[in-house]
Specification:
The chain is of the alpha/beta class. The protein has one domain: Rossmann fold (3-Layer(aba) Sandwich). Helices cover 33% and strands 28% of the residues. It has seven helices and ten strands. The strands form two sheets. A six-stranded mixed sheet has the order 6-7-8-3-9-10, sandwiched between helices. Helix 6 links the parallel strand 7 and strand 8. Helix 3 packs across helix 4, helix 4 packs across helix 5 and helix 5 packs parallel to helix 6. The radius of gyration is 18 Å and the shape is globular. It starts with a strand and ends in a 12-residue tail after the last strand.
């Protein structure tokens, strides 16, 4: 699914010459749940931008689903972002006055999907993310933080992307609600979705099945373990 080979990313601005990523290589297979963990300044945000086709490397190769993203121009990157990647952000990025259903339908509207089909796909995505029909017609500013993040997950799912890229998805949530959201990612992974989780928190990373630890722009080590589970009912 993903092959990152000898990736470097260097930022040059006048006298500033900063190496953010230094000769990084790794692969992620289809259906994996991988966490990329590191402290502030480690390079994980830069790596997230490259994996999300929001930027390209200075050197090296990034293959996503067989396509070489590392050499693409902005118009090509936009197609990759729309067709291959579902994003989930810390700040949810929902339209506050739009309904839950409309927020999830928006990517399909931009893609020109017919109304009946986009409604059906949005409902399936919301159900997969753990939302019930009683909330579909609520505005997104009328639901809880945990529910908002599930709506954001549904929006990421609705185009059936190759990967779901989650950047600090529990950062604005309390620990209990965050655990519910992470359990949602685990359930989606068990259904076959490929998930990449960016975090600086160890207890969040442990919900993944594999952890890549990044420091000073390099992959410091890799861990494979039994993912952390929560037994709490998903009621938030």
């Amino acid at each position: 699914m993903i092959a990152v080979q000898n990736i470097t990313k260097r930022y040059v601005n006048g006298s500033i010459n900063f190496l953010a990523l230094d000769d990084i290589s790794f692969t992620i297979q289809k259906g994996e749940f991988v966490a990329i963990m590191g402290p502030s300044g480690s390079g994980k945000s830069t790596l997230m931008h490259l994996l999300g086709a929001l930027d390209v490397p200075t050197s090296g190769t990034y293959l996503l689903d067989g396509k070489d993203v590392s050499t693409m121009q902005e118009d090509e990157l936009a197609v990759i972002r729309r067709e291959k990647i579902g994003y989930v952000f810390q700040s949810f990025n929902l339209l506050s006055r739009a309904t839950v259903l409309r927020n999830v339908m928006l990517p399909l509207i931009y893609a020109g999907v017919p109304r009946a089909e986009r409604r059906a796909r949005a409902i399936r995505a919301l159900q997969a993310a753990g939302m019930t029909e009683t909330h579909f017609d609520h505005r997104s500013n009328q639901i809880s933080g945990g529910q908002m993040q599930r709506v954001a997950i549904a929006r990421a799912l609705v185009n059936d992307p190759a990967i779901i890229l989650a950047d600090e998805p529990t950062g604005n949530l309390d620990s209990k609600t965050g655990a519910f959201v992470l359990a949602t990612f685990q359930r989606l992974n068990e259904q076959g979705h490929t998930i990449i989780l960016i975090t600086h928190e160890r207890d969040v990373a442990e919900y993944a099945k594999r952890i890549l630890m990044i420091r000073d722009g390099k992959i410091e080590k890799e861990e494979i373990h039994h993912a952390r589970r929560t037994q709490a009912e998903e009621s938030t």
